[in-house]
Design brief:
The complex is a heterodimer of chains A (195) and B (181). Chain A has two domains: 30 residues; 164 residues, Glutaredoxin (3-Layer(aba) Sandwich), CATH 3.40.30.10. Chain A contains six helices and seven strands, in the order αβββααβαβαββα. The longest helix of chain A has 21 residues. By secondary structure, chain B is an alpha/beta fold. Chain B has one domain: Glutaredoxin (3-Layer(aba) Sandwich), CATH 3.40.30.10. In chain B, the strands form two sheets. Chain B has a six-stranded mixed β-sheet. In chain B, strands 2-3 form a two-stranded antiparallel sheet. In chain B, strand 4, helix 3 and strand 5 form a beta-alpha-beta unit. Chain B starts with a helix and ends with a helix. The chains are: A alpha/beta (195), B alpha/beta (181). At the A-B interface, helix 1, helix 2 and helix 6 of A face helix 1, helix 3 and helix 4 of B.
Amino acid sequence: MLKKILYTLAVLLLTCTSVQAKVAKEQIYKQQNRRPVDSVLKVKIGDKAPDFTLPAVSGEKVSLSSYRGKKNVVLSFVPAAFTPICSDQWPGYNLAHELFKMNDAVILGITTDNIPSLHAWTTQMGEGSLWFPVLSDFFPHGATAMEYGILRPEGITERAIFIIDKKGTLRYIDIHDINKRPDLGEIIKALEKLN
Amino acid sequence: MRKTIFILLILLLAVSSNSYAGSIKTGDTFPDIPLTGKLSDAKKKYLGLKGAGPWMLQDINSDYTIIEVYSMYCPHCQKEAPTVNSFYKMLNESKEYANIKFCGLAAGNTEFEIDFFTGKFGVEFPIFSDPELEIHNKIGQPGTPHFYMLRKDGNEFKVLLSHEGPFESADEFLKTIQGKL
């Protein structure tokens, strides 16, 4: 009898694990609404975008300046891995690859999470990996976010979009309400203005 | 020892059912939600709607309505889009199901995002917008995709099927729908 119960328990545990792997919703941390914006921006449109070099999930290091003269860059800062809005924002950009490509733009996705967390989080966003680099601003904690003025007191970044042209100049800034997702249409419209 | 295992079992069951706690279930009543969106004349004709809206769910001219709550940003919805298109085609082409209408509700998506999704996947069924998630909140914040099959019951809607997550195949889902008529 005891053996049967243990067997049932093992099967149930396996079932729950497989549901979690298939339906990412269960892995998402539920949180209360936060203050829409809780930091003081340090850059403005027309400024040279502060350069940075950050480790990517792929294992390489990525510098903003390496795109100078080659690509328009969309910096997409999101607050935290495994949280509701962040978890679908990048899959949306993944689907819209052609819209960014048409505008000669690359996305750099950035959070203050560490690389293993970002790896676990982004690999379950779709069947293939994301087409754009995902960078970790984990250590020194949030140093890049702090340079742009979007590090919140709780150590996460704002939900922010910065568009930088091929000359390295900031052309669009949206420090978005952290509880809401920015409209893809606005980002594409801003990119179209660069061309 | 046995008591501990039984308690563990019950806890596990409770945890696995918690994720569906907020959404409207089969057998519940569905609210008469407002519907807005940029619909072509052909799509309005399909649903029996007139004018530029906003409309109410009650205005859809059919006894049964299937609503897919989805989002352009949801990877499951992206992956399932061709299967949902096949389902709609099968439903729409059969006289047997003439009294069932199908539409989408784009949770948290702007018109730009709806247009991009429909263009990308060649979606032909009508899609209503809910950019501020007002309707999504009103129906208990279901995960996406979520399918509701509704039957008009006077001024209310009876939920004949509340299906969370992608369906197995267009054929199988059509059989499920048939079983609910």
